[in-house]
Amino acid sequence: MKTILILVGKTADKHFQAGISDYAQRICHYMPFDIVTIPELRNTKSLSEEQQKTAEGELILKQLQVSDTVVLLDEHGAERRSIEFARWLEQRQQTARRLVFIIGGPYGFSESVYARANEKISLSRLTFSHQMVRLIFTEQLYRACTIIRGEPYHHE
Asked: What are phi and psi of 44, to 5 degrees?
């Protein structure tokens, strides 16, 4: 199974970039993993939030294959503890050919992206910046890989 993380817009903070890159390299030791960055929209001042979500949604959908299992990182998604997320990931590894996680833009996802998604997950009830979510999610994906492999976990 190949795992892909789609991001809308670049990761601006160099510290977050370094952390995300580090975790992405670690994840690759456990499974095929890629990060795809969709360029930020230009001239968005003339667009409403809905128009921006729609335009981003079209770019996101172009990255997807028909058989992809698509999981949105969304504040209304299912929350799991790290061990539960690892078990969930392990199950998807048995059934999905490509598992695609998506972190949307600042206004979230368009209705067409929600309609295409198979699931939604939430990292926390707390609010994090989109930049920070990228780092937290890659760390949790790496942690899930180590849990699946039976490597030491900080506590159970």
From this structure: -85, -10
Which residue in the block uniquely carries the two structure tokens 């609010």? 127
Q: What contacts 139, CB < 8 A, 6 or more positions away? A: 19, 23
Give the integer Cα–Cα distance in Å for 5 and 57: 15
Q: What is the dihedral of CA 144, 149, 154, 156, to 10 degrees?
A: 80
Phi, psi dihedral angles at 75 (to 5 degrees): -60, -20
Distance from the Cα of residue 85 to its chain's centroid: 13
Contact 110, 59 (CB under 8 A): no
* Dist CA 118 CA 104 (whole Å): 15
Nearest to 10 by CA among 74, 103, 98, 75: 103
DSSP three-state, residue 6: strand
With a pLDDT cut of 90, the percent of the chain lying above it is 85
Tell me: the pLDDT tens digits for 3-42? 999 999 999 999 999 999 999 999 999 999 999 999 988 8
How many Å from the N-terminal Cα to the C-terminal Cα in the chain?
A: 27
Q: pTM value? A: 0.94
Q: Supply 90's token pair.
A: 């392990």
